[in-house]
Amino acid sequence: MTKRPRRNRAVTAKGGWLPNTLAIAFSVVWIFPVYWMVNTAFKPRSEAMTSTPLFLPRHWTLSNFDAAINQTTFYRNLFNSLVVVGGTVVLAVVLGMFAAAALSRFRFRGRRTIMVAILIVQMLPGSALLIPTFLVFNRIGLLGTYVGLILAYVAVVLPFSIWVMRGFFIAIPVEIEEAARIDGASTWQILYKILFPLVAPGVVASSIFAFIAAWNDYLVAYTFMKDQDQYTLPVWLASFSTPITGTDFGGQMAGSVIFSLPVVVFFLLIQRKLVSGVSAGAVKG
Predict the structure, then answer these.
(1) Which residues pair with 241 in a beta bridge?
(2) d(CA 147, CA 91)
(3) Could you say which of 8, 61, 219, 278 has the lowest number of CB atoms within 10 Å?
(4) What is the pLDDT of residues 139-189, one digit of tens each?
(5) Are 240 and 37 in contact (CB under 8 A)?
């Protein structure tokens, strides 16, 4: 029996040490802004504005959170965000499921052209569609409405939803549908009772993507809505900076913590399904 050379062990140890060190370094760099946001949220204004960085508050305070929540438009903007995000998620998932089912299960003229068009639209940045969408919505009277903002977000997230869920539909064996048809099931029954439950991971991945895209957006909401009462929470965060008083960094960071909590909680609850859904959709599609 031969012993394993020591040099191989050294190479293996070195090869594992370097990636781990780089991963830790990048993690620290990425998590530091989040730490500083939370740190500043608990500082009084005098400590938040000091020229010397304080890595921990000397006098912990909740006044920044109180000031953020008690702003006049906070609850109205929160309601706007919930309505817009809910409508975006529902519409993107429903339209994405039916479109993915049609593109994966039916053969019709122009199917490949539609799939290529979906890929092209998905590759375009959302800001490139902002001005054309604004002009169209202005002409048909959808600016300053929930419907207009929801449709603008759906236009951005729908290509991703279709492509991800199409991968799950393709992975379902056709024999399952054939067996259901032999048993007398209609097309709608096959879709509702058989296919849709099997693509649930893709639905979860698409809904999370739609949720994050609509919840975090600032530019579209600021452009399409007309006054402060119609804005969503990302635009509300900008109200902490005024030309007269400057920027209330403590209040803005407290508002950012409040704004981030729903996304963090939502992501932690279904992170496993998100990873499996995106991976499976990308590989199988």
Answers:
(1) 247
(2) 11
(3) 8
(4) 998 888 899 999 999 988 888 888 888 888 888 888 887 888 887 877 788
(5) no
